[in-house]
Design brief:
The structure holds two protein chains of two kinds. By secondary structure, chain A is an alpha/beta fold. Chain A has a single domain, classed as Rossmann fold, CATH 3.40.50.360. Chain A has five helices and seven strands, in the order βαβαβαβββαβα. In chain A, the strands form two sheets. Chain A has a five-stranded parallel β-sheet with strand order 2-1-3-6-7, sandwiched between helices. Chain A has a two-stranded antiparallel ribbon with strand order 4-5. In chain A, helix 4 (133-150) links the parallel strand 6 (121-128) and strand 7. Chain A starts with a strand and ends with a helix. The mean pLDDT of chain A is 95. Chain B has two domains: 4-174, Rossmann fold; 176-214, no CATH class. Helices cover 47% and strands 14% of the residues of chain B. Chain B has eight helices and five strands, in the order E-H-E-H-E-H-E-H-E-H-H-H-H. Chain B has a five-stranded parallel β-sheet with strand order 2-1-3-4-5, with helices on both faces. In chain B, helix 3 links the parallel strand 3 (55-61) and strand 4 (88-94). In chain B, helix 1 crosses helix 6 and helix 2 (44-52) packs across helix 3 (69-81). Chain B is globular, with a radius of gyration of 19 Å. Classes of the chains: A alpha/beta, B alpha/beta. At the A-B interface, helix 2, helix 3, strand 4 and helix 4 of A face helix 3, helix 4 and helix 8 of B. The complex binds flavin mononucleotide (FMN).
Chain lengths: 178, 214
């Protein structure tokens, strides 16, 4: 299953991606992060201790976590905001810590953590209009760091909002073929 | 707040955490008052305060390799409201991992925000090993001999209104070697596993999402 979290507050890229992925026959679920009630993480660290694997906050995030826990590919689709993701997407990202393995491991000589979702692949799609090199570089770097700390595989893509939608079809192929 | 003041903004939801401790250390030299980013409600008043300040220092934790969502929301709101005119912006980001690259995105994000919204980016400070400190004074940092003078130099930059370069925090915090990393991995994992077992959890159990989670 592929879980898509999209910020649709500035365009219909989420449903376009869904359309592009449908012909691949993969099971899909999509959440519009901007229409969900998701509170910001309070950093209470209960999810890695007292209530291991469970967030104490009561909001829509439990629906999202439930789907991510059972998926093979997680896709974050966001407008590129200051070289990162929008706050709607970031809220979800921060709360995904509940799915993290709090133990430490070593990879390429560095400390990393991991995810409790075996084999999860992690994708980020950034959409923007004539993004500068610095914005693109920062967005790709964020994905690289996310991948490292979560110890997962995956790719990041940047799409120009003024381009035709064929770029999205290419991205859909990459996500579904891996 | 009149235009000459320094705004010290803490972007951590934890009021007694490492972000707040670092900001308090800045405040002791620059004066001004530490403002905590409200975790709910409108951010408009905070944007007004940003517009009125001459210097803004943002200090926050690293959540999944950059600042938390609520700070991004503040930056988005500030960009929408606009009206900035060269306010000096400094950033501080602290995270658990001892690597600068893990947290660097936070500063890149602030720099892009500043460039796109007519503020002056003056540089930032990345602090690794911030989780272990958990709000204790910087003197308790595992690498305090180098980190304390480097951070105090950063504060002097803020006080004097001069730009700070990445090399200041990078040179003070070289990445630990493989041997030390392995010791850290084992020690930290031992502590995590002990904590989980104390709470009655098996750390090796697969993640099963049950109704109990709702
Ligand atoms: C949701 C969440 C995500 C985090 N992600 C990271 C991370 O990606 N890298 C890291 O080194 N530390 C990470 N941490 C640890 C915090 O950055 C660290 O505990 C920091 O010192 C907290 O600062 P504070 O005391 O000011 O809140 C994360 C913590 C939380 C709660």
């Amino acid at each position: 299953m592929i879980t898509i979290i999209s910020d649709d507050s500035r365009g219909d890229w989420g449903s376009l991606l869904e359309d592009a992925l449908l012909p691949t026959g993969r099971q899909l679920v999509r959440f519009s992060a901007n229409s969900l009630d998701i509170k910001p993480c309070t950093g209470c660290s209960s999810c890695s201790g007292k209530t291991y694997g469970r967030c104490v906050m009561k909001d829509d995030m439990h629906l999202v976590v439930q789907k991510i826990a059972g998926c093979q590919a997680l896709v974050m689709l966001s407008p590129v905001v200051f070289g990162g993701v929008s706050h709607h997407i970031k809220k979800v990202m921060d709360r995904i810590a509940v799915l993290g393995d709090p133990r430490y491991r070593m990879k390429d000589g560095e400390l990393v953590k991991g995810m409790r979702v075996p084999g999860l692949r992690y994708y980020m799609i950034g959409v923007g209009n004539k993004l500068s090199e610095a914005e693109q570089k920062a967005f790709l770097a964020l994905h690289t760091e996310n991948r490292k700390i979560m110890d997962v595989k995956g790719q990041a893509f940047i799409l120009d909002s003024s381009m035709d939608k064929s770029g999205l079809e290419q991205v859909a192929k990459e996500i579904s073929h891996e | 707040m009149n235009r000459s003041e320094t705004m010290l903004l803490c972007a951590s939801p934890r009021r007694k955490g490492t972000s707040a401790m670092l900001l308090e250390r800045v405040r002791a030299i620059t004066g001004g008052e530490v403002v905590f980013l409200p975790q709910k409600g409108s951010l408009d008043d905070l944007v007004l305060a940003m517009q009125k300040a001459e210097t803004i220092v943002m200090s926050g934790p690293c959540y999944i390799n950059t600042y938390p969502a609520r700070l991004i929301e503040l930056l988005e709101t500030a960009a929408q409201v606009g009206g900035f005119s060269g306010q000096k912006l400094y950033g501080i980001i602290n995270g658990g991992m001892p690597y600068m690259h893990t947290h660097q995105h936070g500063l890149s994000c602030l720099q892009l925000f500043a460039q796109q919204n007519n503020l002056s980016w003056m540089g930032g400070f990345v602090l690794g090993g911030g989780a272990m400190l958990d709000g204790q004074p910087l003197e308790k940092h595992m690498n305090h001999r180098k980190v304390v003078p480097a951070f105090d130099q950063f504060i002097r930059h803020i006080a004097q209104g001069t730009a700070s370069t990445d090399s200041l925090y990078e040179q003070a915090q070289p990445a630990p070697g493989k041997f030390v990393t392995r010791i850290f991995a084992n020690l930290l994992t031992f502590m995590v596993v002990k904590k989980l077992k104390n709470h009655g959890y098996d750390p090796d159990a697969p993640f099963i999402y049950t109704q109990e989670h709702n």
